[in-house]
Give the backbone structure.
Amino acid sequence: MEHVYDMIVIGGGPAGYTSALYAARAGLDVAVIERMSAGGQMAVTDRIDNYSGFDEGIPGFELGMKMQSGAEKFGAVTKYAEVQSAELEGTLKKIVTSSGELLSRTVVIATGAGPRELGLEREEEYVSRGVHYCAHCDGRFYKNKVVAVVGGGNSALEDALYLSRLASKVYLIHRRDSFRASKIYVDALEKSENIEFLANSSVSELIADERVTGIRLSDGRELEVNGLFVSIGRKPASEIFRGQLDLDAGGYIIADESTRTNIAGVYAVGDVRTKPLRQVVTAVGDGAVAVHFAEEYLSGM
Ligand code: NAP
């Protein structure tokens, strides 16, 4: 007889491992399927300062490892594989991975969201050769160099400020003349001496040979830059569920605070779900809530 889990969690970020922790503590037979390593997007965040309880902050990677070991201590197992497809309808759900099929009574989707691309010609070709999506991961390559950041939200301003401490000059390119970002970032930006804000601008072309050497703006101007950091929001990792789960226009899985999706026994937690605030602290809350409703579902309530 093939093994049937009580719960399979897809994705090992904060939401996923919190579901696994709560499920394991409730005595459920739970496995987390993770592609690479624990922590999700959090793991590429230098330091997390807004997760309560860590008064000195904590490196995102370390917090991810702690969440994994905390869940495994109570019996959750981690399987390293890529999920290729899923059959979510019915009482027995089938998850097809790069290393075989798994069966489960419930599924928690915690696949998160990745960076949104600008959609420039050759953008993909120059990833890591001048095009980047994570300032905290790749900023160190641009010490005393010139970089551009695109975007006007909290991430873009945070990235521009971080890079301004490394690079000699930072262009901040935004398609409007006002920001979505919080006042605290806008005030810091105004005080910065080496960030030049280019309002009502967008990047139309990469100028590159072996690496990016510059960018062309929509008004035709050319800027010499060594690197371009794209910080224009995120896109949810939900494509493999399209057609089964209801998604909103941005591709987020439609689920309310209960984390329940349109399919019974399937829950969406963390950044992949429709929600007003995507943070570690809201992701872990989702993880716990999903297990509450999964237990109800499993007991036939
Ligand atoms: P965001 O708030 O959605 O902002 C995305 C920015 O990119 C917007 O300024 C948008 O311009 C611009 N943009 C989108 N598509 C574009 C395109 N194709 N070309 C050019 N510009 C484009 O995304 P985010 O900054 O990544 O933040 C995501 C969430 O995390 C937010 O809720 C944010 O508050 C949160 N966050 C919080 C913190 C913090 O609290 N410390 C730090 C980082 C992020 P428009 O304004 O014109 O739409």
